[in-house]
């Protein structure tokens, strides 16, 4: 009877140890996965902050200010050629013999010589 009681006691101790070890392993895994998720979230937030900082630096740069002036106010420097695009072409291509209305010639002249009087 003492051997049976001792065996039962050892078996019970083993079950308790295995249960506690299993709980510890599961808890450790959950803590590790929570840590990894928080780490990824922190990295995403850090990258978002860096992206916003770069955008702010660009907005505060003189290049952005000049771009906004050029786009919104049609600002241009002396010596630059301003291209003005309209929705409808001024002339249309009617036949092969009429070179004055040839769109390829017009584009070539526009890019080579620009507009004589921009505004």
What does this entry look like structurally?
Helices cover 68% and strands 0% of the residues. By secondary structure, it is an all-alpha fold. The chain has a domain at 77-119. The termini are far apart. The mean pLDDT is 80.
Task: List descriptors.
3 helices, about 120 residues, about 70% helix, mainly alpha
Span between termini: 112 Å
Order of helices and strands: HHH
Note the overall shape. Answer: rod-shaped
The fraction of residues in strands falls at under 5%
Overall mean pLDDT score?
Answer: 80
**Backbone CA Rg:** 39 Å
Structural class: mainly alpha
Uncertain segments: none
- The helix fraction, in percent, is 55-70%
Number of helices: 3
Count of DSSP strands: 0
Q: Biggest β-sheet: count, sense, barrel?
A: none
Compact summary:
This protein has about 120 residues and is mainly α. Helices cover about 70% and strands about 0% of the residues.
Topology:
Elements lengths: L1 H58 L2 H12 L29 H11 L6
